[in-house]
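ZP: hey, is the oxa(dethia)-CoA complex queued? I don't see it on the tracker
AM: it wasn't, my bad. submitting now with these inputs:
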Amino acid sequence: MLSAGGYLPADVVSNDELARRYGLDTSDAWIQERTGIRQRHLAAPGESASSMGIKAAAQALERAGVDASEVDAVIVATATPDSSFPATAVRIQAGLGITRGFAFDLLAACTGFIYALSVADAMIRTGQCRTALVIGAETYSRILDWTDRTTCVLFGDGAGAVVLRAEEGESGILSSHIHADGRHGGILHVEGGPGSTGGTGLLRMAGREVFKHAVTKLASAVDEALAANSLAREDVTWLVPHQANIRIIDAMGRKLHLPRERVVVTVDRHANTSAASIPLALAEAVGEGRFKPGDLLLLEAIGGGLTWGATLLRW
Ligand code: UT7
């Protein structure tokens, strides 16, 4: 992984402002206590997964010192594409002026970025591409029910991107471990969609149920990733988790015996940006120069499907 970039919409909405704007019976105290969220960024009219993804990718390429013409694969994890097709990845490819290679979207909800890393890594290892942009880009504000306080306070919009390149050496993705169990699809899903109701549909979540799955499934994915590489939790330098809830993030930090300063946290400012949350966290940490060569990063996520997974990578 050469570098990471991110983009967040300009409209920063605090918990109090959100409650005012949408007439919600909620409070800043409830949201902060239960989730750690203080604010979120919301896309402006006209902003989309592709427009934000282009900005995030451009920053990632610039930081990596890679020209867009060198990119031969664009893989975008999103549950909120601009339209059913062309894929958001193809729109981003065109927006960056890339005319070669391939581009496609992948849908695994909040686990989308881990899935996309897994796919990109496998394609690089099998020689199908050499330089890949892997992007998470979401506009959940467009699929939220703004009258449902149990879900609409939790999410935000944004995009993050990383540049992967086939290179010899110690750094890079060690392994990814992805899982799905569709029996639990009903506890976090979008009601309706282009192929059923013809519309976009709205997000529904049984939060407490998802929370229970999150703690056990993330723990097992983390153990699996460490065991596959004969590594111990003490070897992990940074936890870069999906940013859904500070209580879940803290539980994973405790499991790994990592102090808070070794956990990249953005949920307080970004809220849950689904597939964009991990690359946005990576982008922030890279911007602050937090990762050093040789650091071991552990990425993990769970989301609708249910899907979940973890990636270990050497910086
Ligand atoms: O990104 C994909 C993965 N997603 C996740 O990992 C999310 C996992 N779940 C969670 O993070 C938490 O379950 C939530 C943050 C969604 C909810 O927290 P909770 O501690 O599980 O709360 P709860 O759902 O058990 O609700 C507690 C109470 C309820 O009232 P009663 O039934 O106890 O009277 C809710 O109606 O809080 C009430 N409530 C609210 N009150 C004020 C729910 N939403 C709100 C709200 N403001 N926005």
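AM: back. The longest strand covers residues 131-139.
ZP: great, adding it to the tracker
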